[in-house]
Amino acid sequence: MITHIRGRLVEKSPTAVVIDCNGVGYFIHISLHTFSQLKDDESIKLLTHLQIKEDAHQLYGFATVMEREIFRLLISVSGIGTNTARTMLSSLTPKQIREGIAAEDVALIQSVKGIGLKTAQRVIIDLKDKILKIYDIDETLLISDNTNKDEALSALEVLGFAKKNSERVVVKIISNNPDASVELIIKEALKNL
User: Hey, which end of the chain has fewer CB within 10 Å, N or C?
Assistant: First the structure.
């Protein structure tokens, strides 16, 4: 119904903005990813998603088309509401979520606060085929990323580190540096474990 809003930025916080559009102030929920994309310009445009419930009409704003598409895909999964989807987009970039789902990286999805193992698995099962089709991702390219991660995790396990802690640290390292070699992942992980 409301696909975007262009207007004057009146208020800005990490979770929401208020945009004045011809005298009407729209309160729009945003993710940290969108917050980081916003300039302090007077005039801005946000793509939006309108969520209508019995007790509220809420607008969610996005800096990019991909972020809005990922948000809409996430809320289509049973057990993922708008707040959880927004938390996911605040913790990971839309590209990381997209590639994590395509690569079946349960640990990455589970690294988001509030997402358990079953929910992470459900997200991957429900969305993997859609993500591969929409973004035309070649699955063979994703295997190498998982190989580096798996090799680093097994090396850390051999060194005596708990798998769960190691996985959390390695996911964080890979999300910050997707092209990291196995050696670099292990070195960085050892600093943080």
Answer: N
